[in-house]
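FW: tagging you since you asked about this chain on Friday. Here's the raw sequence from the shared folder, copied in full. Didn't touch anything.
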Amino acid sequence: MSSKPHPPLMKKHSQSDLVSRLKTRKILGVGGEDDDGEVHRSKISQMLGNEIKFAVREPFGLRLWILISAVTFSVMALMALVFPNQLYEVVFEEELSTTNISIRLYGGALLSLALIMWNGLYTAEKVIIQWTLLSEACYFAVQFLVTSITLVELGVMPNNAVLLLLSRLLFLGATLAYYYHLGRRVKKI
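HL: got it, structure written out here
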């Protein structure tokens, strides 16, 4: 049996090899950008998803801020539910002439927000943290408006109420700053 000699091995040119590789990647659908701007290196990473885009890059002190908010909301809610008259007297420096039910309803709403804060503290999902911060910011804005309107209607400006208004503006600013920094896209290196 005579064996045929094999043809000599030919080297591929690196340019044609590169073109072939790019064509193969294009057919497979990898290497290009998807709708989210992600560039997938392989079909496997495209199918499984890129875990880096789910990792939240948290601003410094975010978890501490949410913890302080959760504790503050919980304490205020319990005070409004258990001691509604005293809470009103501390802020407006006068006795509550109406029923306690409105202050207790306020305490119930605060307790609901506190539960949202506690949930936001223990989650790793960016969207839940953003909604937690947004609900907190809405609360501070609404409380600032309601307290301001109430003080104008009463025609008095107690020091405690002014302090409350200034603290609400400060807390609103801090919450919106965290919300803004959490929502920013991280630049890819």
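FW: The radius of gyration is 30 Å.
HL: agreed, and The helical segments are 14-28, 43-48, 62-82, 84-92, 101-121, 126-154, 159-183.
FW: great, closing this out.
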